[in-house]
Structure formats: C-alpha cells, structure tokens
Records
---
Amino acid sequence: MISQSKIQDKRKEIWDAALKLFVEYGFHGTPTSKIAAEAGVANGTLFHYYKTKEDLVIVLYNDIKNELNSYITSKVSCNESLETKVKIMFINSLYWALDNREKFYYIHQFHFSPHFAKISPETIHQQSTCHIRLIEEGIKAELLKPLPIEFLLTIVSSHVFGVYQYLTSEDFSESQQKKVINDAFGMLWDMIAP
Amino acid sequence: MISQSKIQDKRKEIWDAALKLFVEYGFHGTPTSKIAAEAGVANGTLFHYYKTKEDLVIVLYNDIKNELNSYITSKVSCNESLETKVKIMFINSLYWALDNREKFYYIHQFHFSPHFAKISPETIHQQSTCHIRLIEEGIKAELLKPLPIEFLLTIVSSHVFGVYQYLTSEDFSESQQKKVINDAFGMLWDMIAP
DNA sequence: TTTTAGATTGACTAATCACTCCACAAAGGT
DNA sequence: ACCTTTGTGGAGTGATTAGTCAATCTAAAA
C-alpha cells in the first residue's frame, strides 16, 4: 500500500509542478524540462508517466474538472429546497475556486486554448450533468425562468466566473468575501427566478 | 495619400493574418513564418512592422479593444434614459461580438494568456472608462444597486460573454438571436436594478 | 539623372524544445 | 538466486523557431 502510493508520488509531483508552471507561464511558456526540474525528476521520467506534453495538459484538465464536480456534489444533500440547493452549489463553487485558484484559473486557461478542441462533446456534457439536472428540475417546478437549459447553464457559469474575478481582483477580508458572495447570489436569483 | 495607405497594406495584411491564425492555432501554435506566409510577405517584413512576435500580439489586443470601445460609444447618444443607454450598449456589444467573432474571441484568449500581464493597469482602466462612467451615473440616480463599480462592471462583462458563448454554441436564426439578446437584457436588468 | 531613404526579401543562425533511447536500479514473484 | 516488470535517469537528436542581416528593389526628392 505504501509502495503503491510512493510509486505514484512522482506522477503527482509532476502533476503539481505542471499546474503551477502552466498557470504562471502558460502552456507554451513552460517547457517539459522545467516541469521535470520543478517536480524534482529527470526529463525522461515525465514521459514515463505522461505520453506527451499535451497528454499532461489534458489529464490536468480532466482531473481538475472531476475534482470540482465531486466537491460540489458532495456538498448538496437531496432533502433541501431547490433554491437552497442552487445556493449551496453556487457558494461552494466560489469557495472552492478561492481555495484552489490555480486549478480554477487552469480550467479557464484551458478553455481558451486550442487544447480544448481535443475534449469530446460527450465528455463536456457529462462534466455538467449534475448542474443540468438541477436546472431541469427548477424549470419544471417553475422556480426558474422557462428558458433553454443550456442558456441558463451558460449564464450561471459565467456569473460564477465574474464573481470569482472580482473576488480575486482585490484583497478582501473573509467577511467582505462573504458579503460579496451573498450579494452575488441574490443577483443571480433575481436574474433566473421567474 | 494612396501610397500612404499602400505602404500600410502589408502591415494590415500581417495584422489580419495574425488574428486569423492566433485564434485558430493559439499564440504558440502559430509561428511567425506562417503569419508571414498567410499575409503574402517575406519573413523579414513581419519584423519590419512589428519589433517582435509579442509586440504583434499586444498591438492586436489594443487595436481590437479600441475598435470595440469606439464602436460601442458611437452607438449611444446623450439624450437617452440611462436604462436605454445601458440596453443599447449591451445589445451592441453582442452584435459587434457576433459580427467580429475572431476579434471578440481574441480578446478573451489574450486575457487568459501570460501576455495580459504586459498590459499596464492604467491602460486596462482607461479601456473601460466609458462603462465605468455609465455605472457611476446609474448608481447616483438610484437606477442601479449601490454596489462597488468594479463589481458591477465585472458582473456585466461576464454576463455579456456568457450570452455570447450561448449564441455561438448553436446556430440561431436572426429572430432567435434577437429573442435571446432581449431575454438576456431583461435578466441583466433584473440583476442590477434595485 | 542621381541620390537617398525606406521597404522587402529570404537565407541564415543560435537557441530551444519535445521526445527518444538505453543503461541501470528496485521490487516482486517463483 | 533468477527472472520479469516497472521505474528512473540524463545525455542525445532532429526538428522547429524567433529574430538578424546584408543585399536588392522602389519611388520620390533634389
């Protein structure tokens, strides 16, 4: 067991190093040699764990997306009202983003890169299943405006990102952060509730 | 006069080629040689007009930002109500984005690249002066929620981008587009009005 | 016509980078 | 003890690239 995780140590070291450097210098700005150096492994070792640089880029994206998704779904329980569920998901998305700035930034950096074209539409759709289900439910219960699901999803996602951008543009105290997030949810609800 | 513009022809050819290729293949994915080839000029000519590749990347960004800004400001006249002004700016931002998809995409691609760090904060601030003034005015007149200007600005910008994303994710007819944009403005107004 | 200044070219260079290769080490099963 | 599998290292390679430079062209001024 210990050896099992120790074997994967270097894989994780490379993963972490790549995230840090990609976010700081961009995909093109970080050579694989620098990633290996930052991870404390040899050049060749990187290619033992990741077939190509692009493979690493994509694995990073999928891992982060999955981590975010499972974090968010872990926070909502079924016996809440729909508004509460949406609120919990919204707030927790932001807290996760604030606690994992590199990872959250990476998602968007990836989104605006040619690598994103390599992600299949099914994967993309599957990665937002839980959000889609909630929106469907909300529309049926007439708690959300009767608009196309994809439309609402896009609007909510970009709102989350907007709030994140604002929260990271300046230094806020915890209580200021909390107020901004609450205001932002109020605005979101005003926007999507009928 | 004719020669004047003819001299700048190649500069513009390079500009256009760079935009097209950067959007398609990313900054790293497009070598300067390809840009020169696409523009129909020699390798060296590119560096006659733009000192470095990065210079070209940044000039492209600033030019596009200025174009977008002057387009939007050209559409609002002073003797409108504030809500109308906001609506006109919102709608025209989206129409411009839809008519200039490469340029609009480029702005965001640039935003999520390390090149963005090279833009001075003053320049960034100056590039959104007209939006800031409108929001200030709106808060004073109690037509907008009394929130920090930067917050409202960020929220509105990301809403615009969200709507743009939705509109370009599928093929919509003109009337469908118009409906989406109108709905989106209604939602925006619900969100930012007190 | 001659001069001059800028525009244009494309071969060239120095550097960089993704990735390979092969030798060796560690671990585990038999 | 022996073999097989898997991990690790790092020098090496071939391809690519941003940017240079000296030569040539163009056109208008003198």
---
Amino acid sequence: MSVKPRLSRGLRDLLPESMIARQRLIDTVRGIYEIYGFSPLDTPAIEYLDVLSGSAGQEAQQSIFRVTNPEKEDLGLRFDLTVPLSRVVSQHSGISFPFRRYQVAQVWRADKPDPGRFRQFTQFDLDAIGAPCGRADVEIIAAICDSLSAIDAGPYLVRFSSREILNLLLRRAGIRQERAAAVFRVLDKLDKIGLGKVKLELTSGYTDSSGDRIRGVGLSAAQVEVIEEFLSVSGATRSEVLRKLVALFSSVPDSTEQLDVIDGISSTLDALGYHSDRVALDVSIARGLAYYTGPVFEAVLLDAPRFGSVFGGGRYDNLVSRFGGPPIPATGASMGVDRLLAAMEHLGRVRPVKTAAQVLVSVMDETLAGQCMRVAFDLRRAGIRTEIQVAPGKLGKQLKRANRLGIPYVVLIGSNEAERGVVTVKQMAVAMKQGAGIKGHGEWRQARFGQREVARGKVAETLRSLLDHAS
RNA sequence: GCCGACGUAGCUCAGCUGGUUAGAGCGCCUGAUUGUGGAUCAGGAGGUCGAUGGUUCGACUCCAUCCGUCGGUACCA
C-alpha cells in the first residue's frame, strides 16, 4: 500500500518558481539591514511552551503548534521572532546592548489559513534591544522605507502612531487602563470594517451578516464621541496632524511631553528625507498586540491595500523583563514575507522565474560529454549560472527544456563543433522572434535561428557580454 | 472557532430526475528527414468520481460523518 503524498492544512511547498523571487527579495532586504549595521541571529524553531506563551493571553496559546521531545517536555513551535529574541537577550549575559539584530525565519501559527495566510510562514524581523525611544524608532521606520523601495514594491505608505497617544485618548475619554487592550483591538479594525461597525463594537456590539454575535466593549455614547473626534484627526503632513493633536489634548495633563516624543521622531524623519508622502502619522493605527508601549507602525502597498499590512511593528519596552531583570527598552518591525510576495505577485511586480540558470549546455552526443562538461565548468568559473544536460535525450527535448524553464542561452556541442574547436551559442529569444512567421516544421528546424559559432576559448567571454547587454 | 457554498484527470470543467466500459479543452509523453524549441497533424498515458459508512437490485448522482477547498466572520502575539 503506497502512501498518498499530501500536506496538512495551511502548509505548502515553495517550488523553485516561487523560491527564486523570494530569495532575491530576502537578499535585497538583508542587504539593507546590513547597511544599517544590524547583525544576523538564528534561534531554534522549537521553544519551551512557557517561554512562548507567557507574553500572550491564553487565547493566543491556542494557535501555538505544540510539540514534544523524547523527554516528554511541553514544547511549541515559535509563532514569531520577537519572543525568542527577548529570551536570547535575557539568557545570554554576555550580550552588549544595544543589541541590534535581524532574523529571517519560518514561524508557525495553528490558525485557520486564508488566502495569502498560511500556518507556516516567513518573517523577516529587525529589532533594536536596549534602545530607548527616539533614534532607534526612526531607523526602524527608515529601514522599512528603504526595504520597500529596494525591492521595487511600488508605492507604499508607512503609517505610524503611538500607544502613548492612544493612552492620552483613554484619559480624555475617561476609559480605564484595563479596557485599553480591548479598545485598541477594535480601533485596529477601522480600516477593515469602517467607523460604523467600530462604534457599534465599542458600545453594545452587533450581529454580523452571517448571524454571528459580535460582543461589544460596552463604552458609553459620550466616550465613543470622544473617540470619534480623535479618529477624525488627519492632515496632509505629520506636523499638521500633530498640531491638531496638541489642540485636542490640551486639557490632558502631560500631553505635550508625550506628543513631543512623536514630534521628535517626525522631524528627524523629515530631516533624513522620509516625508509625509510615505510616512504618515495616522492616529487610527493601534496594532492589536498588547505588548506595545510606544510608537507603533505598519506599512501597506498603496496599490494592494487588500493584502493588509506587509510590515508591522512598534516599541515594546516591557517584553524582555518577563524573563526577570529590569525592563529593557526595545523596538522593531517584522516584514511578512509571504504576504508581501503575494501582494507583489498580485501587482505583477514579481517576475516568475523557473530556474536560476542562464545557460544550458546541451549534450547531443554522449562521446562528447566530457567536452561539454569542460565548457560548462569554464562558464561556471566565469560566474555564469550554468546547467549541463544531465539526463540523456534528443537535442529537441533539451531545447524544449530550456524554452520552458526560460533559460535564455543554449550551448550546442556536436561533432561539427568538436572537429573545429568551436561551440554554437543559441539565443532562444532571438530565434523565436526570427522564426515567428514560419509554418512548416522542417523549415523551422533547418533555419537554426539565433545561432553563432564561437571559439572554445571564447565561450565564457561571449556569453558574459551577451548577458550583460541583455540586462 | 462560527455561518454558508463546493469537492469528477496535473489545471478548468461536462456528466439529464440514481442505470452497463466516466468525457472534453488545456497541459504532459511519443512521433511526423535520425543536430533544433514554436505552429500544425497523428498517437498515447493519466481518474478506486475527496474519505468512510448507510439507503438501494444498482450510487459520481440520495443520506450521515469526517477531511479538504472557497466565501463571510472572528483571531492574528
């Protein structure tokens, strides 16, 4: 009885066609983070369950994939990279702060999968631990911008706000701090469900179209009015929004100090060239997450708003202290690699590439295979990504393979070439263009479009110049 | 998690109110002067009809449960 090949729910294979674009994106972003002087970190996929679940509520524990080991300990797969990071900085006493690291790795959540949302997915995190509010947040936001620009994701907007601004709102509206998490979670949905439903959910709740009862937070009408007034604060620039916030919160004690922090971040961003057209102060950004304590931010692709935020992050000054010791100020952001790729694919900004190979060295005649191999290795040593035909087959089949995989050049070495110490270089695209009008099979075959003979010693040089001109 | 729809070849689907050997297009493989992709033509492979149980003389078709997919909603550290 054979085993049926299959994958469990929410898991998927990433075939070469997906992996090539993905790795290029990751390489590009890694380059940005290294330019910023961040260092790489890796941690195990498996952590102790209590290490993972401490920070999150019990509802969060449900989405942890549980595992065990031969010692029968309770373990789980990491659901993000921030919690393992806070373990690392608490556990390794030799670490010197600020600890600025990046990490790209798989994480797992046992949630219901949705389009573009899987149970195993990749996050690319950038964090600075031991960095108080200010420059560290600025450089995280700047790195988000530089990454989105570098990967050519199209127009984007980083929106940021601050938990402290939201706390001012709570004080102005007379909402107790214990309700903060519930209120923020509802506010975070503004984009998705609109003001009307947000207001309902903040008060009495409502019954949605599927008949599901949505529980309300139970605020008073007067409190919701204050929130609505706050949410209507907007402006063309960050400084305009800030001016309005200063006016709005003038009656709340200490509000200017809190808003000065945001003002500082905003003006530094301006000085560095990150202006309001791509980094907006948007008071509706709450981030659902409970552990944020200061600035919070997220990024969307403006042409693909339905994919939601492709970066998310914020300041979490208390997270590390749950492993004991003093609070360590920290800030960071996480790129949703899968979501970002899905959005860019949707926008046609990811060119599908089936293979990394630029050249296929065909093998027409097994007795000449040695020569073919030598040519292939000459190309490889010249830095040209080269596949050599490793399975037997007719030339037609080999060309078909190159065509299908999108390999732009094929090197042909048969007895004709071998006798004269040359090889034939075929440019697949040129041949396709030249043969466009041809109807008959025989004529097509004999025309041998897009081919040129090159001396054996010049193959690498020739292909190098062809490739350079093509790109 | 909850509500709803759906599940037939690798993909997109057809299959009349239950009735013999389940079809098409695309894709794939082979071939059409043995050293040439494409187009065209000719062949071919591939499905225990999502799984299990039930109703029936008989089930791809009806029923139940499970699994999965899609849509909505919730969640998203």
